[in-house]
UniProtKB/TrEMBL annotation:
Gene name tied to this protein: pdxA
GO molecular function: 4-hydroxythreonine-4-phosphate dehydrogenase activity; cobalt ion binding; magnesium ion binding; NAD binding; zinc ion binding
Extra remark: The active site is located at the dimer interface.
Annotated positions binding substrate: 130-131, 268, 277, 286
Identification of the protein by name: 4-hydroxythreonine-4-phosphate dehydrogenase
Quaternary data: Homodimer.
Source species, domain of life: Bacteria
Stated role: Catalyzes the NAD(P)-dependent oxidation of 4-(phosphooxy)-L-threonine (HTP) into 2-amino-3-oxo-4-(phosphooxy)butyric acid which spontaneously decarboxylates to form 3-amino-2-oxopropyl phosphate (AHAP).
Length: 325
């Protein structure tokens, strides 16, 4: 177990973030110390709370309640209805969490879901999403999104763009960066000494020799060949429809797919509740549950904390693999 606790940001307090944080503490207690950054008034009524002044108090506090590092918000958080008045505070909590983890006061950062439109409406949030804001705070140009569980680790090379835009966005440089970042993270954060990475093709049957598309020949295969020459263990381009069954998955440690759904459909089919969103390429560890704010069920006691618990556990394992900063 890392020496420092995990920092958990509150996310949008009108979503299910506060509820699943309380449920995660109820299950994990002091066995996996984390602290929640947010306004205690936004937690579900009756939540045992142990307010702390510093992260290093979290382990002791976790024996009696959810450790909370208070961050005052200007408005209540009605379930299912985000208040624009709270938008800047949601953003500030993320920045505070990054500051704590970069100072070594937290071993990793786990983030509860935010609602991008609410942040844009309430605080003119200039970033496409959570990940891009974290990259800006860290001062890095390129980060990689991984969806991970015990059954599969998969990275989409392109993410939130229309399918028609993927071929143009799928450049050699993007693939070089994605594969190098993924390879380095598997070593540093997952403790895999010699990672094996499977690389999907873009087209059906990986283009079938150019009959169904030439991206494999002109873009993907040359990058794979160049990185193999650097010593990376890469397989592909592989036909995406045959690389995610159980026998195929045993042959690699992670897969890199070419677009969003090509990556996310397999892992959400295999492990919908246990999938964790991991941001690779940051100078700190960041995980998050693989779901959104779920405004439609917020405040009803129905939210499943499984993905958040998986995100906290994965952050804990990654911090242990990475070791002291």
């Amino acid at each position: 177990m890392p020496a420092a606790p995990i920092a958990l940001t509150c996310g949008d307090p009108s979503g299910i973030g506060p509820e699943i944080a309380a449920k995660a503490w109820a299950e994990l207690g002091a066995r996996l110390p984390f602290f929640w950054i947010g306004d205690p008034a936004h937690l579900p009524p009756g939540t045992p709370v142990s307010q702390i002044a510093r992260p290093d108090e979290a382990l002791r506090a976790a024996t009696s309640g959810l450790p909370v590092l208070p961050h005052a918000f200007p408005a209540p958080a009605p379930a299912g209805a985000p208040d624009p008045a709270n938008a800047q505070s949601v953003i500030d909590v993320i920045a505070r969490g990054v500051q704590l983890v970069r100072r070594g006061e937290a071993s990793a950062l786990t983030t509860a879901p935010i609602h991008k439109k609410a942040l844009k409406d309430g605080a003119a949030f200039p970033h496409p999403g959570h990940t891009e804001y974290l990259a800006a705070l860290a001062g890095v140009d390129r980060v990689v999104m991984m969806l991970a569980s015990d059954l599969l680790k998969v990275v989409p090379a392109t993410i939130h763009i229309g399918l028609s835009e993927v071929p143009a966005a799928l450049t050699r440089q993007l693939l070089f960066d994605t594969l190098r970042i993924t390879h380095a993270a598997l070593i540093r954060d997952f403790g895999i000494e010699s990672p094996r990475i499977a690389v999907a093709g873009l087209n059906p049957h990986a283009g079938e020799g150019g009959v169904m598309g030439r991206e494999e020949i002109e873009t993907i295969a040359p990058v794979i060949a160049a990185l193999r020459a650097e010593g990376l263990a890469l397989m592909g381009p592989m036909s995406a429809d045959t690389m995610f069954h159980a026998a195929a998955r045993r042959g690699y440690d992670a897969a890199v797919a070419m677009y969003h759904d090509q990556a996310l459909i397999p892992i959400k089919t295999l492990d919908f509740a246990g999938g964790v969103n991991v941001t690779l390429g940051l100078p700190f560890i960041r995980t998050s549950p693989d779901h959104g704010t779920a405004f439609d069920i917020a405040g009803q006691g129905r939210a499943d904390p499984a993905s958040l618990i998986a995100a906290l556990r994965m952050a804990d394992r990654m911090a242990a693999a990475r070791g002291p900063a």
